[in-house]
Please model this.
Amino acid sequence: MNLPLPDETNSDEVLLFNCSQLVTLAGPARPRVGPEMRDLAIIQKGAMLVRGNRIEAVGSRADVEPLAGPHTKVIDAGARVITPGFVDAHTHLIFGGNRANEFEMRCEGMTYQQIAAQGGGIRSTVRATRAASEDDLVTIGRKHANWFLRGGTTTVEAKSGYGLTLNDELKILRAIRAVGELTPLRCVPTFLGAHEIPEEYRDNPSGYIDLLIHEMLPEVTRESLAKYCDIFCEPKIFSVAMAREILSAAKASGLQLRVHADQFTCSGAAQLAAELGAKTADHLEQSGAASIASLKSAGVQPILLPGSVYAIGSQKYAPARAMIEAGLGVVIATDFNPGSSPTASMQMVMSLACTQMKMTPAEALTAATINAACSLDLQHEIGSLQAGKIADFVVHEAEDYRELAYWFGGPRPAMVFASGNLLSF
Ligand code: NIG
Ligand code: FE
Model:
């Protein structure tokens, strides 16, 4: 398999010059809201010095070049755009198999929900994931990590949720940890044991909730396998009452919260996210003014996933404009998964954000970098190009940042740096 490796010629200090636009997103270490989302803090014809895994300086070439030493490797960016590495704050990074068969069924007219009701959907990926060993999952995760990195994504949030037994959930979370150690992709783990009621608990959902709270959560926290706990809160999956019970237990055990909310039904999940002080509420395609107001009052960041709307053939995208106007720190992410959103491309998601949700290219880039970093509590380390931050950045095949969302399905980045290393693919 072709895995990304740090370039052998990597040196400890790198100077990049001749960037058409150095898109820094410099600014406060908090979610950018309202008009701030359009302020990208661009340095025209900028330069950047990297030392080790950190950014040493950003500025004009005249300011930065004198700081370079005799052994500094000098890279001509070729009048291209440089941005921070994309931060993908909602992925289902690791799963067994794929669902190309269901994709074909949807092309022939069945809906995502009809397929799920027949035992397909999440449950079919659960069967394939249970059948895979931890090593198999690490191999799959490394392959996916390669896809993300090649597209300019240097950090992902990665959820479990296709195991739904104690051992299978732990197996996925351990595989996520291994992928983060074995590849240059930074992986932030989330426990999503409440992704679906597994087949064997179909007639006994409260038995599954007991297992989740009393067996899975203690083990996940004992092994420090997750930073966040997530749930698919939807009337026919986990109701608001069930979600309150599970998320409260997760919070009490020290995990922060994320919620799949208002994806198919506006049922109070966003309000629950607000009530419990969740870090994020994700999807929100069906959200109205009441959901938006509660997210705002509790400072919950919305994570919008237009890839999943596009891929299941729905027309109803989340109300991004209303959220930006309400002052929410909007994030966009891929929702990479084998069912509703089989894409690892943040540029594709930016394109959808612009064309379908009417975000501007600048807002989409802010939502894909610094705002996403805030949603993972990593705003002091990544998400913008500022001295002292980790040197995760991308040299794009573009002269203007607006091209990133414009050339949909377009060229891959010219260069990707993760922790100061130029990756070779
Ligand atoms: O975020 N909504 C639930 N979970 C995923 C879909 C998972 C799947 O279809 O396998 C989502 O869209
Ligand atoms: Fe998801």
